[in-house]
Amino acid sequence: MLNKIKKFKKENIIKYIVILGITILICQNFLQMHYSSDTYVLYDLGYMEYPSQYFLLDGRLISTVVCYLAGILKIPIEMYIVGMNFIGIIFIATAIYMINKILEKIINPEKVITKLMLLAGSFILILNQFTLEYLLFPESAVMCLGVLFNVIAIKFMVYNPKCKYIKIFLALLVAVFCYQGVLNMFPVLAILVYIVKQIVDKREYKVKEKEFFVEMIKLAFIVIVVLAICMVAIKLGKTLLNSN
Q1: How many Cα atoms within 13 Å fall on the side-chain side of residue 148?
Q2: Residues 195, 197, 199: CA angle, nearest 5 degrees
Q3: Which residue among 45, 174, 204, 231 is buried most deeply as judged by most CB within 10 Å?
Q4: What are 182-206's pLDDT values in tens digits?
């Protein structure tokens, strides 16, 4: 039994290393200094002024904290850009690994070709053109962290832990305060994963259909509450900044 557990852990570590290696290979051009419009603004305003004029007004609290911290530590902007991208790539690889494990748990594939297809599908789901665009920006690591927390929310949805919906809510709350745009991927992933679950599930169709409908309503409510909290935070931020 112990040998099986060790073998399972070893296989998971190897899989993660392979996923990380492929992700780094695909994203290698981001591991050198590059520029976006935001990069020039960061150069112009500096670490302290940049988040005050942009991030706080958009409710991007985690990006604000990270940028302030970089300013306090006086990290060179070139090092900051490349370092944030490297951390972002690690977050993306972790998200790919996690969504792959979720799909494997649902489908329980036995053939190697099926496992490889699921792995390829996991890369497509996470490392697409939208995620690659996040790596252009100075706060790329925070945006990619938002992607990871979307997948963590999906994991809670599938694994049904204790206080499942509270955990999904908290994961999405972190994601939305990383970057509101990443929240768009949660409904897509949730519907896709649930459809896969329904295909594998052998219960009566009407029972599955009702369960799907109820689950989607609950998740939609959570997303709306998260967005509402984010909107309140944005309004508070604008009010406080305008009063100073």
Answers
A1: 17
A2: 70
A3: 174
A4: 999 999 999 999 888 888 877 777 7
pTM: 0.91
What HEC string does the chain produce?
CHHHHHHHHHHHHHHHHHHHHHHHHHCHHHHCCCCCHHHHHHHHHHHHHHHHHCCHHHCCHHHHHHHHHHHHHCCCHHHHHHHHHHHHHHHHHHHHHHHHHHHHHHHCCCCHHHHHHHHHHHHHHHCCHHHHHHCCCCCHHHHHHHHHHHHHHHHHHHHCCCCHHHHHHHHHHHHHHHCHHHHHHHHHHHHHHHHHHHHHCCCCHHHHHHHHHHHHHHHHHHHHHHHHHHHHHHHHHHHHHHHC
